[in-house]
Amino acid sequence: MVGAPAEMPTTPAPDAPLARLAAYAEEAGAGALVTEARALASRVREGRFFVACLGQFKRGKSTLLNALVGDPILPTGVTPVTAVVTVLRYGTTRAARVRHASGDWQPIDPAMLRAYVSEQENPENTKQVAAVEVFVPSRLLAGGMCLVDTPGLGSVFAGNTEATRAFVPHIDAALVVLGADPPISAEELALVEDVAAQVDVLIFVLTKADRLSDAERAEARAFTEQVLARRLGRPVGPLYEVSGTERLAGTGPRRDWDALCARLKEIAQGASRERLVRSAEARGLRVLGARLLREIDEQLGALERPLEESERRIETLRRCVEEAERALGDLRHLMMAERQRLHAALVEQQDRFLARAVPAARAALAEDLTQARGLGRAALRRRGFEQAQIRFRETLEQWRAEEQPAAEARYRKAAERFVELANEFLARVARAAEMDGLPRRIEEEVGFRVKSQLYYTEMLRLTGRSPLRWLLDALRSPGAARRAVAREAGAYLERLLVTNTARVKNDLDEQVERSRQRLEAEIRRQLEDVQAVAERALARARVQRASGEAAARAEIERLRALRAAVEALRAAASDG
Question: Are residues 246 and 318 both part of a single domain?
Fold first, then answer.
């Protein structure tokens, strides 16, 4: 049975700044802003603040958070797990709840978390989960700290990356989880820079320390500290070396674990905690208030302009969008031509790889079998094919690790012109709509937007032992049998490499095309959003004007007063 959370959101005081902002948003008919402002007002009133755990996928973020709260409640695994932002809060008993995009909070059994937050059971958040909260009786969280498990960055699951970036404005402090293999990525650096621009508290952790030697940890620490300091323009403070796995198991050296816990407890107490909560309130008033002002300005413009001018404006917007659609179509052909060049490069890379990898892998396999003395003929044949499977995976994974970043780099290069032209049209549409202040840029591509769908085939039908092979093995001398197995297993290994290399190439090719489709869809959505805002405002203006000139003037005065109230609220927050 699911226990009730110990602390549910309370109704914020009606005179609280964020509560007033929510009321203003409700007056303006901005439903989404109402929800966001009320949620932030509740957590400010309760003294809760968010410490977001950020990093590349498979850095061990979920395991680290489980260790910090002393409860393996968040799902972990050998594949990228977290698909949805998950908030860990204090509760007297274990509990969890989930909210879908079109519904209210629903309690769930904590044992069922994987069904909502894991990539395997909710791939790229197809279940449309808007939020997940988990309640645990952890002393670390009792003071209002909320630890946030974020989907990992990287090219494997692009939807997860977007979810993490969308959460950035809600972050009050960041727990940045890094590793030594691979080292800090360009995307992690970019995210750290984004977060550092709005929060002061950044805590850097080098996790999975149990998997590294002292020399490897020292090298990783020095490299990471140097890169971060150069990117942020300041020293980054201590880099805590820990192992969440060891701490959950209660084994191994503690390393920097106690120092990390002490740092987290420090920011959860007294003036530090109060500072973070007030910072969240001020940031919310600034960001949400700016969005509300834009909404009000659009409604005012639609009422103050002559109706014919607003209609011409909408028509201009539509033409801009249509022009952009045509340009996207032309650019699509250019992108498809670039895709063909990328495909040709992959084919060339595949040929070069096979030319050097097949002989080397076959030679290594033959050496493996030379060492396998004393085995019977059946065991030797089984050993040969097993070793072929091991060799092919090792060889192919090494090539894939080299080729995936290269393919992503080629895709990024091909997408540069696509993004540049798209932003030109977005700026033109925004100017036509007199919305120049809106953040309507498509960010540069940092990698593939879709996950790999690659799976290897082991072609097991080729490993069967026919009656003829059995008879020949029985008649051969031990040396001849070993050579026959090496020859047949080597041929099998070569087939595996050729077939699965083609699969890698085709998978990368498919990631290029599907990423292009996702990018184009985002551009189209941005164009449609700009047009939709203007059309909604015009529709409201028509309703007001249909009620008569006096009603329209009254609505203008109401909106002006509302705008002044929002500006005053934001100014008071800035002064405070």
Answer: no
